[in-house]
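Changelog excerpt

This revision adds worked examples to the README so contributors can see how folded entries look when concatenated. The first example is reproduced verbatim below.
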Amino acid sequence: MLWRLTGVVRDGETQVDFTKDNRVFIAPSVTIKPNEDTTITLLANYQKDTAGWGLQFLPASGTAFANNGRFIRNTFFGGEPNFNRFDTELATAGYLLSHDINEALTFRQNLRYAWMHNEQQSFYGTGYASAADEAAGLMSRYGAGGASTINSFAVDNQLQGKFVTGILSHTTLFGIDYRNTSFRDAASGYSTGKINVFAPVYTNAWTNDGPYDDKGIKQSQIGFYAQDQIKLGRLSFLLGARQDFASTDLDNFLAGSSARTDASAFTRRGAVMYNFDNGIAPYFSYAESFLPVLNTNVSGELLKPETGVQYEVGVKYQPVGINALITLAAFDLTRSNVVTFAPPSYFAEQTGQVRSRGIELEGTATLVEGFNVRGAYSYIDAEVTKDPVNVGKAPTTVPLNRFSLWTDYTLQAGQLAGVQVGGGIRYVGSTFGDDANTFKVPASTAVDALLAYTKDNYRLALNVTNIADTRYVAACYGYTSCFYAEGRKAIAKLTYRW
């Protein structure tokens, strides 16, 4: 019998004024091996967060670009201090079961039940109501308060077999999985006055405008799948298929109506890879996806399932005798019925089709003992290809270029042996700030650093992210909804292992 206990107690705040970030978390796990062929792992966790609404819906004027030469502080809180709550409780329990029937056949069953309850109150910025308000920095606001609960049960049964047919070796997998989820959400709207984003004055005064959402959604999904991994010398193939059936029931208690949708899909995937003696491994893969959505649009209608098709070709290189791995991939991904949350309603809505094409390059290496390098670059050309309005536009938040580089070195000898220093840089290219591509969010660069010392069973480390405390916008979803990235953060950590 093996056991582990993980726990966290945190009393903290965020960079946003009046916004806490408290957490209590505990997760016990026990693994039982009654014999050599059977393993059972029991898992459970409980988490309670007491926090405020850290995401601030800020106008583009004053964040993504200047408002008469002024910028809103990244610590600015746009709501009311006494109407700022985001409390969540989460509990899960389940197990992982594996049993070797014989040397070639293995049965697995993974099961989990999850429950989550959330209660929240917050005011959101809705932008400037007029040019005069923009010049004065007066942001309008609308509030929401409510509660939601999710219950979810999932079980996955797998039968895996290993066998040989002639010159081919197989690892074959058959499975059936089932998921049942119920979601209940109720919310009311609130009104309050405008706030000066450059010189805020909080009144803690508001009025209740009544409920605008009260619904229950139940969804069940069952899937049957099969997969075969075939090897012929250094050549590997993967062939897989899956059949899904899903049903979703909606009860709209405000409107006194109900609805039901049924959906099914047959999806496939396949891949091929060849491993050369020199460490080069080219590959090609194809995959289809199907994802039922547990949500409704602004009209209260159930959303369609998201679907996708992806082609990818690439090469992996692991040099012989060197601790290094380099991967280069080119992909073409088409997603349909993409769920987004756009202003002014922020209810879920769906874009007909988005196509993303690009390349990704990643590498990690130990150049000499104690000296490590990691780097990544991606180029993604994303475009809306089906939509009533925005065909040919780029979706928000997707940069054309993204780059990161990290290095660290640990002294190997002498009085300072065990001292580690590291540094890195993260670059994210500009993105469009709205669906119509009328303005851009500027590119950003952040620098991170590490200083650590390891001796025997002790390790003392100081990690600093965004060390220059650069103020930049992570994303915008229109002129009324921009979000700052995290400023400088330092974490000191002392670890003892035994």
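The second example, added in the same revision:
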Amino acid sequence: MPTLKGARVALLEARMTGELSDLVRRLGGVPHAVPALREAPTPEQVPLFIDALSTGRLSVVIFLTGVGVTALFREAERLGRLDETLTGLRVTTNACRGPKPVAALRRHDVPVQIAAAEPYTTGALLDALSGVDLRGKGVALVHYGERNQALADALTSRSARLEEWCLYEWLMPEDRAPLAGLVRELIDERIDAIAFTSQIQWRHLFRVATDLGESSALVEVLNRHTIVAAIGPVCASALRACGVTPDILPAHSKMGSLIVALADYVELTGEG
């Protein structure tokens, strides 16, 4: 088992903070959890989506996250329309970007006909959809916390009758002080490593640093001192766009794999 050798690891994950912190501790690190976002549901979208599903307007439904599936089912149940929703999804072709929406659908006996391969990117999803004729078909794209413009454009270019749905939003934490504190701790070199499990975490941290007038200092310290782990190519691309070169990209785009890869890196290099 690799060890983090006492490294202080910043974690920006909002939903699985406890699990990731426990894993860091088990691997001999010190977790410093500062959630970088909050997920705000948009329940007003759900009845409109169910209407589109129930009237047969949709032939294909694409889910990008398990959070979107969960938000849909939770609000549908509150509205007394869960059975109607499940019935509609059981007669559509359902496609998922990653394993989490697949698992969330299958827990309700909803079949998933199309699933993207690792690393679960937009490109991988489009590859998985390449054999499906979308011309003139009603296609629902259930986004993550913001619109995936590239995916929407690609589906429209294939002549799909695209309908887009955002069942939750990614927002800044209501209290930005912990993120501001993390920026200062990073710049002061009091954080040994930082783990990004989504690109929005980096964007929010960078925005706070920019507001503090410390964006250049943050980029400099991440490249020079702090070990930077990014969960996959989308996250890594967002970091590189701002001048940060990630040190670690795990072989599998999963949170646990990210922390284990970080421990492997610390053991291999002696950093931390």
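Reviewer comment on example two: The chain has a mean pLDDT of 96. The chain has twelve helices and eleven strands.
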